[in-house]
């Protein structure tokens, strides 16, 4: 008995359990296959971005000959520097940054406020409005009715077309509602007893406690705004000054044969640019310009994203 007690004490000494689980041959084979599968899957996802990147920082002549495969050669940043000669590109970058920032900020504020309101039983016809909100997720009028609706509302050839339609997001409102319902009701009750109003509770209690879910919907909104180009393609087709970065990339990728003519329409002298950059390099470089910003933002929001998504999915 004493020997067993000493053995257990030795195993748990230092607060750590030093017992080991012996793996069978089947477990080892499964782990090898599992790790190999996820390694191949991860490599498949990452390699396209890596391949584009190494081509943008390599010697253009080597890229043209297809000599770049796994490692960059003739390192240079001239491809990025010379893209500055395409004036309309940087205007599209500005438009995309503005729509991403403003659209995401307004969407987060409206979603958080609406999500909080539909949790209150005192809200007028709360169940009707909430069900009406959910129903909109299952029905879509189609592209043509959507365009006619946007046109009648005056949301064509205007920057507001990027902001107003995306302010209300039923899915994000449901996520916020579910998360707010997970917050202990006693916190609000104690605030009511101290004389706080709904607005005060929302601003000083609900908003700070909802940071994980707000960061989650912020990522959804920012990625959607940054990658969106259909609204630019359809609603602002007659306003080139409002083209987004994704719309500009779409034009370049689908106008390879006419890319020289597009670049020649720039107000700056791009004669040297046409000789030093070919269509493929331009496509690679612009693709990286559209990818890098959103990749830089996501790691800082990931910890909030995981927590908010899990907590917001507990209830329906």
Please give a quick description of this structure.
The protein is 67% helix and 0% strand.
Structure description:
This protein has 316 residues and is mostly helical. It folds into two domains: 53 residues, no CATH class; 228 residues, MetI-like fold (Orthogonal Bundle), CATH 1.10.3720.10. It has 16 helices and no strands. Helix 5 packs across helix 13. The longest helix has 33 residues. The radius of gyration is 27 Å and the shape is globular. The protein starts with a helix and ends in a 5-residue tail after the last helix. The N terminus and C terminus are likely disordered.
Proportion of strand residues: under 5%
The total count of strands amounts to: 0
Which percent bin holds the helix content? 55-70%
Mean pLDDT: 79
Total of helices = 16
Terminal Cα span: 53 Å
The CATH superfamily of the largest domain is identified as MetI-like
Helix and strand pattern = HHHHHHHHHHHHHHHH
Rg calculated over all Cα atoms? 27 Å
Q: Which structural category do the helix and sheet elements fall into?
A: mainly alpha
CATH architecture term of the largest domain: Orthogonal Bundle
CATH hierarchy class name of the largest domain:
Mainly Alpha
Structurally, the number of domains stands at 2
| Rough outline | globular
The CATH topology of the largest domain comes to MetI-like fold
Largest sheet entry: none
Which consecutive residue ranges, at least 5 long each, have pLDDT under 50?
1-15, 267-276, 312-316
